[in-house]
Amino acid sequence: MPHTLSLDDAALLIRDAYARDLGDRLHTTIDVRGVQAHYLHDGTLIIPGTNEFSDWFDFNLQIGAVALEGHGFETVPGDSGAIYHGGFLEHAQIVYTFAKGLRPKFVVGHSLGAASAQIVGASLAVPTIAFASPRTTKTRTKLRGEGWVVNVNRVDDTVAHVPPPFLGFRHMGSLYWMAPDEPEVGEDHRIDNYIPLLKLKRIRDRLPAAWPR
Question: Count of CB atoms within 10 A of residue 76's CB?
Answer without folding.
Answer: 12
